[in-house]
Write a structure and sequence with these properties.
With 298 residues, the chain is mainly beta. It folds into 2 domains: 116 residues, Immunoglobulin-like; 170 residues, Glucose Permease (Domain IIA). The chain has 2 helices and 23 strands. The strands form 5 sheets. Strands 14, 16, 17, 18, 20, 22 and 23 form a 7-stranded antiparallel sheet that branches. A 6-stranded mixed sheet has the order 2-3-1-4-8-7, with no helix packed on it. It has a 4-stranded antiparallel sheet with strand order 6-5-9-10, with no helix packed on it. The radius of gyration is 20 Å and the shape is globular.
Length: 298
């Protein structure tokens, strides 16, 4: 009987230690012919998972579904091995959820299974800041503009290019400048709660070159109200990177960039109080920790 092996590997995120015994894969069976093996059944909010499907013989296709959205699988030279990236949204409520996978064998038969995950609280800190009133109080015109631009971004993130553009592991956008650990922080400005910080910040001098973390197509390069000069990269399969507060834009929409291409310079445009890079990532429209992409490796 054909046996399909499904492995789900969870990145732990920057600075998070692997739990004791994490290397010991737990397994369960799905029907008679499928074996599920999971390296961590408790991903954190905002985490990125690698899903892998293995078969003894080549597969025709693999489909995945999570929280009502499609999960895109690809394979390399070996059609017995399919992989996908899965994002756990920053706002995903802690608790039980699952991913469903359907694999089509070349023999014509299908196998389907569901694997359970338990999302855990990300343990994000609360950051209280005192800023000038202009940073928290918007005029009617500014509010309308910001809402219009957010709809534009949401329309981008809601779409998925049916092609995987990245080829290797993701690289640091500003090498030599560490992350601030701001992803997920619950920010309170002048005693007014705001949405959790959905990206990672990097303190770097104005003018520092920003490199594309992976191969992608530029789908937006312009000035926005909150993010200032912004570049959005489409890496394919619903994976987007966006970079805000740039002092300079070095690419334009429609351009295909390779990993390491300079896309702009660090700045303090938009609603920023000082020079830094804001790097956000959307995966299947899920807000995920950019540092998890760096932790994936090749």
């Amino acid at each position: 009987m054909q046996r399909v092996l499904l492995i789900v590997c969870v990145s732990l995120g920057a600075g998070v230690a692997a739990p004791a015994g994490a290397a010991q894969l737990t397994s369960s069976r799905c029907g008679e012919s499928v074996l599920l093996r999971v390296s961590n059944e408790t991903p954190p909010q905002g985490g990125v998972l690698v899903v892998e499907v293995r078969s003894d013989t080549p597969l025709d296709r693999v489909e995945g579904f999570y929280e009502g959205d499609e999960v895109f699988f690809w394979h390399g030279a070996d059609a017995r091995v399919y992989q996908a990236l899965l994002g756990i949204d920053l706002h995903q409520s802690p608790g039980d959820t699952s991913i469903r996978v359907r694999a089509a064998l070349l023999s014509g038969s299908d196998v389907e299974c569901r694997i359970g995950l338990r999302v855990v609280d990300g343990g994000f800190p609360v950051q209280r800041l005192r800023v000038a009133p202009k940073y928290v109080e918007l005029s009617a015109d500014d509010l309308a503009r910001s809402q219009r631009e957010q709809r534009e971004l949401n329309n981008l993130f809601d779409s998925a290019t049916p092609e995987r553009m990245w080829r290797e592991g993701f690289r640091h956008p500003v090498p030599g400048f560490p992350a601030s650990g701001s992803f997920g922080k619950r920010r309170v400005f002048n005693d007014q709660p705001r949405s959790p910080h959905s990206g990672e910040d990097f303190s770097a001098p104005a003018g520092t070159p920003i490199e594309a973390p992976a191969r992608a197509r530029v789908v937006l390069a312009k000035e926005l109200f909150f993010l200032g000069n912004t570049v959005v990269l489409d890496h394919g399969f619903g994976l987007y990177s966006f970079f805000g507060h740039l002092s300079q834009l070095d690419v334009s929409a429609g351009t295909l960039v390779e990993a390491g291409t300079t896309i702009g310079k660090v700045g303090a445009t938009g609603r920023a109080t000082g020079a830094h890079l804001h790097w956000g990532v959307r995966l299947g429209d899920k807000r995920v920790n950019p540092m998890d992409l760096l932790a994936l490796g090749p």
